[in-house]
Amino acid sequence: MRLIKLSAIFLMLVGLVALGMPRGIFADARDEQEQKYQSILKKLKASQEHYNQLLKNYESFQALPQEKQKSLKDLDDAIHQLTKSYDSIQAIGREKQILPKKMEGKSDAQEAGRLLEVFQRFGDWYETLNQAEKENLGKASYPDGRIEEIKRILTSQWMMRLPKADLDGLLKLDEKMRAAQIVKMKKEEQLRIAQSFDKKKKVGLYSEDSQKFITQVKQQLSGEQLEKIGKLEGKKGAFVKMIMDFAEDNPLLPLNKMGTKYLTMKDLPPEVSAQLKILKQAGAYKQSEITKVEKRWPAFARAVTEIIRRSDPTFNYEFGACKLEDFPEDARVVLDELVQMLQEDEIVKLQSLEGKWPDYPLMIRDLARVHLVIVPGISIPPELLQLKPGKGPMMLR
Predict the structure, then answer these.
(1) In the predicted model, is pLDDT for residue 237 greater than 90?
(2) What is the DSSP string of 346-389?
(3) Which of 55, 34, 57 is nearest to 44 (CA)?
(4) Taking Cα atoms as reference points, which of 351, 348, 285, 275 lies closest to residue 314?
(5) Cis omega before residue 143 (within 30°)?
(6) Rounded Cα gap, residues 323 and 336, in angstroms
(7) For 251-279, what is each residue's pLDDT tens digit?
(8) For residue 29, what pLDDT band results from cuts at 50, 70 and 90?
(9) Are 128 and 366 in contact (CB under 8 A)?
(10) Where are the extended beta strands (E) located within 10-101?
(11) What single-letter DSSP state applies at residue 217?
């Protein structure tokens, strides 16, 4: 099940558009209300792809039995009310410089925040399932059967992330002994991570891997961004959150097999420089797009690639690692394990991007996230994931 994002008015509007009803349908409505509908419609049409998808979603919704439609609308209304409450308490918190969690008692707004996060995380997880798993989950009885099926899938995913020796050992056990061993192994894993987490909290320092990651992220940032980061030094939770937000927009990508770091126009290969020169003369980009990211890796190379691809979508230059053999040795060891975990469709996607930069390493990053694998030089270190505000220690192996 996915988080329902359409309100009743929104559904009605999309329905009118899908059915091709004339604008005059709003003739009896107040001008203010009509303007509101037209404003929403304008925003929807801003992205044709998104707009077309909404129409398809609406058609699917209309095809459902009336009882199912009603249950989805009721769920949407309930979520909408919780969202309004959550937004309201967040606004009050900002005005008074307080955090909702510091308020006495557990309000509806706080519960809304928790539920919305659960919906989002479940939706992201559900999308990683294969078709058979989705069908089995849909057939399971509600709610107990589905809860058990979710647990079964999660356990299966956890097992597939184990080192081969551990997995082979579990598969040799009968069902009863395997279940007991899994419980034991998970408790041991949770204890190791919790102890490591507590130790780092007491020391008050980041691990070597985390410090290296933070330094690499900061090397990509502008002066204004560095100033924002500087103001949060010492405030560990807020500092880590901002670092992770910046890392999302400025992902770490390994160098190519030659170890070349492209930082300025002088570093670019002649054929790439020639393409940029032609595009500049044609007014296809502004010089500021280049200068603002100079001396920053991989931001500079990504900007160059993006500029040229606007005119030539097929453009590709291997500025960084874009094949498995290009990655550093410590990353390759992890990537070999990751590839063994991939579903068939994931393998096809990855192979289709081999040799393309930055597409290939970004796909590696996304697949590693799905399968909870930490790839050195690309993934966010587990310590920083644990320190992100609102998150407890994550179960990573």
Answers:
(1) no
(2) HHHHHHHTTT-TTHHHHHHHHHHHHTT---TTTSPPHHHHHHST
(3) 55
(4) 275
(5) yes
(6) 12
(7) 889 998 888 889 999 999 999 999 999 99
(8) very low
(9) no
(10) none
(11) H
Q: Which two tokens stand for residue 175?
A: 């069902």
Contact (Cβ atoms closer than 8 angstroms) between residue 346 and residue 388: no
CB-based contacts of 205, cutoff 8 Å, min separation 6: 211
Q: pLDDT by residue (tens digit) across 326-353?
A: 999 889 989 988 898 888 888 999 999 9
| pLDDT tens digits for range 175-203 | 889 888 888 888 887 777 666 555 555 44
- Quote the tokens at residue 64: 């459902």
Which tokens belong to 317? Answer: 């230059």
Q: Is the pTM of this model over 0.70?
A: no
CA angle 89, 94, 96 (to 5 degrees): 95
CB atoms within 10 A of CB 294: 14
Nearest CA to 208 out of 363, 334, 330 is that of 330
Count how many residues are written for the chain. 397
Copy the structure tokens of residue 250: 């400025």
Nearest to 275 by CA among 300, 297, 253, 306: 306
